[in-house]
Structure formats: C-alpha cells, structure tokens
Amino acid sequence: xxxxxxxxxxxxxxxxxxxxxxxxxxxxxxxxxxxxxxxxxxxxxxxxxxxxxxxxxxxxxxxxxxxxxxxxxxxxxxxxxxxxxxxxxxxxxxxxx
Length: 97
Prior knowledge:
This protein is mainly α. 92% of the residues lie in helices and 0% in strands.
C-alpha cells in the first residue's frame, strides 16, 4: 500500500532530524579532535624544549667532566682547552663567512 503524503513528510522529518543529530555529533567530535591536537602540539613543543635543554646540559657535563679529569695533568688540560678555543674560533669564522 503506498504511503500517504503525511507519512512521507513524517519519514522525511525523522530522517532530517537524524541527519541533524549526526551532523552535530560529528561537529562536536571534530572540535574535540582539534582541541586534542592543540594539547598534543603544546605537549610536543614542551618535550622538544626539554630535550634541547637536557642535550645542552649533557654537553656541559661532558665538558666539565673532561676538564675535571684533565685537572691532574695541567698540560693535557691546556691542550684540551686550546682545542676547544680553536673549535670555537673555527665556528666563529664560519659564521662570519
């Protein structure tokens, strides 16, 4: 038996309401995903900064360890520091080029 006009309108209205609900849910999920992406990007940036800071700290500790070990032998310490100064001068000259 064919549907009446009112039944068709009711069916279309239900389907439109369902589509509206799904659309709203999808929009909410998208917004939540964007918020989560922002949180993760901030967390990633903090982790990168911490890695950079810790890497620098490790380099300083290596340098301090080398200088401390060389403290017993003044000649070795001077040679080590001279090499560091030479490396620094080399880097500065490369930056100036």
